[in-house]
Model the fold of this input.
Amino acid sequence: MRLIALCTALCLPLMAHAQCGGAFNQFKAGIKAEAVSKGISAGKADSFLSGIRQDNKVLKADRSQGVFQKPFVEFSRRLISSGRIDAGRSNARRYDKVFDQVEARYGVNRNVLLAFWAFETDYGAFQGNFNTANALMTLAHDCRRPELFRPQVFAAMELFQRGQFNPATTTGAWAGEIGMVQMLPRDILENGVDADGDGRVSLKTSAPDALTSGGKMLQHLGWRAGEPWLQEVTVPAQMDWAQSGLNTRKSPADWQKLGVRARNGKLANLPASLILPQGHKGPAFLAYPNFNVYFEWNQSFTYVLTAAYFATRLQGAPAYDAGRPDAGLSGDQMKRLQKKLERRRYNVGKVDGILGARTRDAVQKEQKRLNLPADAWPTPTLLKNL
Done:
């Protein structure tokens, strides 16, 4: 369930590794030539590429991610259920020794891994049935994000050369991720761990391998051992809402001076950002440094916040206070807003109706200019005033 920032085709001539488009057979020939230059044998490259086909279902899935248009409260309630919480706690007990080893070796909290495991594959139950090689080649050929997927093709070839990947039978998510916690081939090359000692890294069938590999990857991405990632807070009725957002960090003492309080327990002694996913009348959280690592796993703001929050629930935090947020925008209204922001020279990325980080930043700046509460939550009032 990954949503990754787009690269326009205009940047492609500047990056030799981001070649894309054209006739698919010619594209495959270019992939083979580059693979051989990277040390893949010509025979292995031919064997890997021989049966590969474009998959239009992959392209359709890539362009149909409307679930990310949903606001945080609706999105999180859709993904988090009492059944998923109970299953998470059951799996925590079942794999207690594995989690102990992951925490000792990589410093990654078990509840963080459990949340990813739940959201990516429902604890391994639904890992995807797209042919991985076809998916990676299709997305590398497509000119939306070749800078992401072209290197993954070569990583899959390297796994194939090592006998760890079968292009004919390996399946996973539409975006090329494999296994219980959905890792791309390059992630597997760099962070795959044989935790069960059977001599293979089996992310599809071995929970110890998948969880340990996920823990190693999070450490590689910068996870800081023993530190929190997210905490629910309460905010005062009035404050400078422009201080919210991931671009601003303050000490706990400074947040307390502004009236921010932990809803439960105490604030951690770490710099933090105030997140108001649906404005100052909705849920409120402090995001600590580890929260930024989530964006290395997935770039959807709503998904990341939901995954981080779910991990706190598994750790024992109560359900958040949803508050009474102001009405937001529909998908079509969000697209109109993004077009208006573009006309004001803001870079909001793709006009897709999704309230991502760049759109939130532009919204906050315009709210401030218009003397509206600058909480980065777009409302019909803001759309009208623009």
Summary: Residues 81-126+178-223 form one domain. Strands lie at 130-131, 171-172, 230-234, 261-262, 273-275, 285-287.
